[in-house]
């Protein structure tokens, strides 16, 4: 029998939508996220819809983003925006707070935290000197669904 996907473990469409809404609510409210918020349009509606569609497929659920927009090409689509360490960290602050709000199983929380970090770090497009903060934080424990 196959392992459940992160999409199934998080609780499906409604819970992915909740994660996205919490993420953008934090982005809108946190002064520490102002720089990343300013990279977005005044209304976050389109951003919410696109992130929901992307995360649905990225987590192993319906590939809504690909169906509507084609291949995500994340790095290319983010190239018009200056993204460095500070922007990455602000994005992760909002996502980590959203994940914390969701009361997920620790294994799923850790799995998502690590994978969001990798993805956010990959979006960086500004030349910067490497630092200790550029290393992936490693969380020891079972993966989602209890496997290691």
Would you kindly provide a written description of the structure presented here, covering whatever features stand out?
- The protein is mainly α and 148 residues long.
- Helix content is 57%, strand content 0%.
- The protein is built from eight helices and no strands.
- Helix 2 crosses helix 4.
- The longest helix has 17 residues.
Q: Which class do the helix and strand fractions yield?
A: mainly alpha
Number of strands: 0
- Report, as a whole number of angstroms, the end-to-end distance: 17 Å
| CATH 4th-level superfamily | Globins
Helix content: 55-70%
- Whole-number tally of structural domains: 1
Question: What's the quick description here?
Answer:
The protein is mainly alpha-helical and 148 residues long.
Which secondary structure elements does this structure contain, and how are they paired or packed?
Blueprint: H1 6-10, H2 13-29, H3 34-37, H4 45-58, H5 64-69, H6 74-78, H7 85-101, H8 106-122
